[in-house]
Amino acid sequence: MVSGKYSALAGAISREQRMANISANLANVNTTGYKKNRMSFESILRGEQQINQAEGINYSRIRDNFTEFSQGSIRETSSPLDLAIHDEGFFKVLSGDGVKYTRRGDFKLNGEGILQTGNNMAVLDESDQPIFIPDADTAKISVNTLGEVSVLTIDATRTVVGRIGVFAVNDTTLLNRDSDTLFSLKEGGSATSIEEPNLAVGSLEGSNVNMTEEMTLMIDTLRTFETYHKVIKSYSSMGDKLSELGTLG
């Protein structure tokens, strides 16, 4: 009976963790470039694994916690420094903890003419260098679909001053989520520059979270959690009855 109670407790804990996952997704449903988290579960049902690893208890546990990198919806903003990546690829940015990868493309210029993300991280070019835009106060700035940044000065001279790097990661399962939209590359992962990226200029990629899907998952998870909770209460009641029987006579 004790093993059954612990089995139900393991199931309840795993669903509680899934609820936290869903809540994070829903909180970022409107976050630019956000990629949703997903969980999968497994149970040790029988055989040597259950005897040796689970000590006879049928644990329900999280098998995998991963990020789903499917394309989010793309919306027009008309801002010349807003970029969205069609298909695969990531922007590379420089944070206080080193190089990171992101799909968030709401770029801007700081006071020194350095191209930055909306959360103040330098955007890197194909050579992992920050992009400096001269005469940013007086020149007209434009970006094309390949990521080339140009300035048009008051004398109508157009000059390409840099190119925003777009990188393909060899294995997205090696990307570790550091924050809502930032990822770092684990050991064994590599990133290569995409020669001809497909960028949507004046547009942003939204979150790939589907609110209806997340709400459905939330309801299902909550009901499963409540079922496990009822099982735990039933085992507790049975334990109390057994204790009472044990004291008779």
Structural class: alpha+beta
Rg calculated over all Cα atoms: 25 Å
Number of helices: 3
Helix fraction by DSSP (H/I, runs of at least 4)? 25-40%
User: How many strands in all?
Assistant: 18
Number of domains: 2
The SSE order reads HEHEEEEEEEEEEEEEEEEEH
Measured by DSSP, the beta-strand proportion falls in: 25-35%
Q: Multimeric state of these chains?
A: single chain
Q: Could you list the spans in which at least 5 consecutive residues all have pLDDT below 50?
A: none
Instruction: Tell me, rounded to a whole number, the average pLDDT.
Output: 83
Principal-axes geometry comes out as elongated
* First-residue to last-residue Cα separation: 24 Å
Largest sheet: 5 strands, antiparallel
Pick out its properties.
three-stranded antiparallel β-sheet, 249 residues, 3 helices, five-stranded antiparallel β-sheet, alpha+beta, 27% helix, 2 domains
Structure description:
The strands form seven sheets. Strands 5, 6, 9, 13 and 16 form a five-stranded antiparallel sheet that branches. A three-stranded antiparallel sheet has the order 10-11-12, with no helix packed on it. It starts with a helix and ends with a helix. Helices cover 27% and strands 29% of the residues. The protein has two domains: 2-70 and 211-246, no CATH class; 74-205, no CATH class. The model has no long low-confidence stretch (mean pLDDT 83). It has helices at residues 2-27, 48-52, 211-246; strands at residues 37-43, 60-67, 74-76, 83-85, 90-95, 98-102, 108-109, 115-116, 122-123, 140-143, 148-152, 158-163, 166-169, 175-177, 183-185, 191-193, 199-201, 203-205. The longest helix is centred in the C-terminal third of the chain and has 36 residues, at 211-246. The protein is elongated, with a radius of gyration of 25 Å. It has three helices and 18 strands. The chain has 249 residues and is α+β, with helices and mostly antiparallel strands.
